[in-house]
Write a sequence for this structure.
């Protein structure tokens, strides 16, 4: 008889709150790319959306008036809404106003240097770049492999730690 082998539980990497704040504090908001990356990472952290969901967003998917939210088109053609923090909305507004984009536009929410829709690989590059900048002064970030999905886990954990109901977290993510 073959003994029953227990499958190892996957370890879900996530960032501590101070690590997330450290990443944000190290983004230079005096540059257009810094403001774009700040808005992008705030949206990713606020919503915990998947990388593909983020790069597929158009400007018109964000509601800039109260109540603030984003309409996310997820796996299996499922659509969900996720509330947005005011600081996320303000960062998105600043990013769009800089490029004279109307808040109702059907164009991509985030574009690359060639003004084309940001790709998942571009998103991964931005995260690697911003985390490596922050890691210069935050030693705990040096040994971590942080991906867009790490932000998804981070959002879930921080919501759970803040006392948000698990079913509510499930519906947002």
């Amino acid at each position: 008889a073959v003994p029953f082998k227990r499958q190892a539980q996957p370890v879900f990497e996530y960032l501590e709150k101070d690590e997330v704040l450290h990443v944000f504090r190290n983004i230079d908001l005096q540059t257009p790319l810094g403001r774009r990356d700040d808005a992008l990472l705030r949206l990713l952290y606020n919503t915990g959306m998947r990388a593909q969901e983020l790069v597929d967003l158009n400007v018109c998917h964000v509601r800039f008036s109260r109540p603030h939210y984003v309409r996310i088109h997820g796996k299996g053609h499922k659509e969900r809404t996720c509330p947005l923090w005011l600081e996320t909305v303000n960062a998105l507004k600043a990013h769009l106003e800089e490029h004279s984009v109307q808040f109702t536009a059907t164009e991509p929410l985030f574009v690359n240097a060639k003004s084309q829709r940001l790709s998942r690989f571009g998103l991964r590059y931005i995260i690697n770049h911003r985390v490596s900048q922050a890691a210069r002064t935050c030693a705990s970030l040096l040994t971590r492999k942080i991906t867009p999905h790490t932000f998804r886990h981070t959002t879930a954990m921080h919501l759970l730690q803040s006392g948000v109901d698990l079913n509510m977290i499930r519906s947002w993510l």
Observations:
- The mean pLDDT is 92.
